[in-house]
Design brief:
The protein is an alpha+beta fold. The chain has a domain of about 200 residues: 2-Layer Sandwich (Ribosomal Protein S5, domain 2), CATH 3.30.230.10. The chain contains eleven helices and 13 strands. Helix 6 crosses helix 8. The structure holds alpha-D-galactopyranose. The site of alpha-D-galactopyranose has 10 residues, from helix 5.
């Protein structure tokens, strides 16, 4: 990403001395809503990111400028800011202070090229950028796992979304050309080279973000916990849905509300799909990988009920164009679909999706070609 505009703005506001830190957004090939259930996910960092120019200012005050919002925020380290975007920075500060680490105020200008609200985790990128920067500037000695966990805690406590660890983990640990299969219970991970032969991955942005997203997210999480609470009365070793098999869950069919049963079954099956998809990728079996993506979408749409009309529409367009696999990505209720397709189908698919979506919704979906990029880092 070209960040000269960020440097220029910093120089204009605060002077010539600063460091630069960056963290990317993420995609997730498969494994949705499994992370907070202790299951598996398969994300990668992307080459779209947030960059901040930053420097300690020797006070207890933060002076932040959001380039993309064209707005300033000024707040003390222990004072909640009023601007929504500044909450992410504040949230990170609060979590660092909770760990009794010493930081000071700072001046910063940040911006990026991750489309906001498209389900590519701008928020995780923002959190990771600031944990990484504060760790670097104040020598906090945090590990990469600390970065991810601080970002996640900021999201829970300052923003109010009880997200899993996937987005922050991918943003921090991402490596160029590699996907991460993360076990969200043990936090062990394995890197998978991702250079699909004759295939491409493309995102289609519905450009809608239904405002149900945050509240429904927390409701889904509570439904999963409700399932676990019932099952663990009989099987005390069950701590998370990760510990439950489809057969075990079926034993409780009559004791759980119908929708809770459906949600839990989706999660359990999605976990199984992640493992199968990774095995398919290792054999370069993109056809099978794609089928599993479609199954994932079906589950997200019909069982977990986190899709929306626009995402379902774009997945249908993928099916009729012979795309190998497509599904909604991320928390749901809008954002992008992720599509895996043979390179020679690309042009026709994009043309059809653009025309059909424009006709149905009055605007073309935005198209992003995916490159798997590097995780959080200091630029200079
Ligand atoms: C959001 C959350 C993640 C994960 C996904 C769904 O992106 O931040 O933790 O739960 O939704 O897979």
């Amino acid at each position: 990403m070209d960040y000269t505009h960020i440097c220029r703005k910093f120089e204009e506001l605060f002077g010539k001395e600063y460091s630069l830190y960056a963290s990317p957004g993420r995609v997730n090939l498969i494994g949705e809503h499994t992370d907070y259930n202790g299951g598996f996910v398969f994300p990668g960092a992307i080459d779209k990111m947030i960059v901040t120019a930053i420097r300690p200012n020797g006070t207890r005050t933060v002076n932040a400028w959001s380039y993309d919002m064209n707005e300033a925020a000024r707040f003390a380290l222990d004072e909640k800011p009023t601007q929504g975007w500044a909450l992410y920075i504040y949230g990170v500060i609060v979590e660092i202070l909770k760990r009794e680490l010493k930081i000071e105020g700072f001046d910063c200008v940040f911006g990026g090229d991750i489309p906001i609200g498209s389900g590519l985790s701008t928020s995780a990128a923002l959190e990771s950028t600031f944990v990484c920067a504060l760790n670097g500037m104040f020598d906090l000695g945090l590990s990469k796992l600390d970065f991810a966990q601080i970002g996640q805690a900021a999201e829970h406590n300052a923003v109010g979304v009880r997200c899993g660890i996937m987005d922050q983990f991918a943003s921090v640990f991402g490596e160029e050309g590699k996907l991460i299969r993360l076990d969200c219970r043990s936090l062990e991970y394995e890197l998978f080279p991702f250079h699909p032969k004759n295939c491409r991955v493309v995102l289609l942005d519905t450009q809608v973000k239904h405002n149900l997203a945050a509240s429904e997210y927390n409701i889904r999480r509570a439904e999963c916990e409700e399932g676990v609470a019932t099952i663990s009365k009989v099987y005390p070793e069950v701590k998370l849905l990760r510990d439950v098999t489809p057969e075990m869950l079926t034993e409780f069919k009559n004791q759980l509300p119908e929708s809770t049963f459906r949600r839990c079954m989706y999660v359990i099956k999605e976990d199984i799909r992640v493992m199968e998809a990774c095995a398919a990728l290792q054999k370069d079996d993109y056809k099978r990988f794609g089928e599993l993506m479609y199954c994932s979408h079906e589950g997200l749409s019909k069982e977990y009920n986190v899709s929306c009309e626009e995402s379902d529409f774009l997945v249908d367009v993928a099916v009729r164009n012979g795309v190998l696999g497509a599904r909604m990505m991320g928390g749901g209720f809008g954002g992008c679909t992720i599509n895996l397709l043979e390179a020679d189908k690309y042009d026709a698919f994009i043309a059809d999706a653009t025309a059909a979506y424009s006709k149905a919704y009055g605007k073309a979906p935005k198209i992003y070609d995916v490159c798997i990029g590097q995780g959080s880092h200091k630029i200079k």
